[in-house]
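[job 4471] stage=fold_predict status=RUNNING
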Amino acid sequence: MSVEAIAVDPVFVTVVLPCLDEEDSVGECVDEALAALDLAGYRGEVVVVDNNSTDRSVEGAAAHGARVVHEGRPGYGRALRTGIESASGEIVVMADADLTYDLSKIALLVGPIADGEADIVVGERLTEAPSSTMPFLHRRVGTPMLTMLVRRAAAGLNVTDSQSGYRAFRRDAILSLGLRSTGMEFASEMLILAGQARLRVQETSTGYRARTGISKLNTFSDGWRHVRQILLLAPHLMLVTPGLVLLAIGAGLEVVGLVDPAGLAVGSLRWQPSFISGIALILGVQAL
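[job 4471] inference complete, writing structure tokens
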């Protein structure tokens, strides 16, 4: 007896775009996302989360085929949480409405999840992004530092760009994490809790384009929000600085002991730094 193949509906994907005064770019982002979904053979929708825009972003998004939901409480993270909760798809792609993320590459993010290989796929920006699209401090200092902290807080999560806002994920998996962030620190919170929950996280290069319009990012205040969130979720990281200091002290005293094996003269006595150096090195390593 022959067995006929059973047709399986293609996966349903929701693309969530938080939006605050992006009338010059949101329509093009919607078009690019819908075209990418169609090309990949996915059923889907684009949800634009209006976060109190004062321009014609809402009208532009709707005219290009997006479903618009409103989140009156300010904040990038709050807008994304509302969009994820409102999503109809079992897979959600989050991005920005300013053309920085290449939405034609949606399939690169969705594919591993649709195939059951990952729960989250992050679109890594740094490899392909030209220097003109990202400030030096963000690219060489802020992002690497925050990524290092996120990796440690997330039990060694293997990502190189924790601050990318372009990522896809299983909606149910992310909702189960109980995310609470309201600002830019949402990106860090998601990955830390995902790592602690042992979700499968992958990363793929998607590049980064020049922004259309005025950036809403505040380098120092948003950076501090990330650090504070990381430390709240992984308070053991507060031991990193003391650990580094102890390592430096231990190494320095070890060098002194090697240079002068007889010890340091302290009045009429001679002090052997090797004992203290060993303790400092051990404590430093344990703290890190």
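[job 4471] summary: Confidence is low (pLDDT under 50) at residues 1-7.
[job 4471] exit 0
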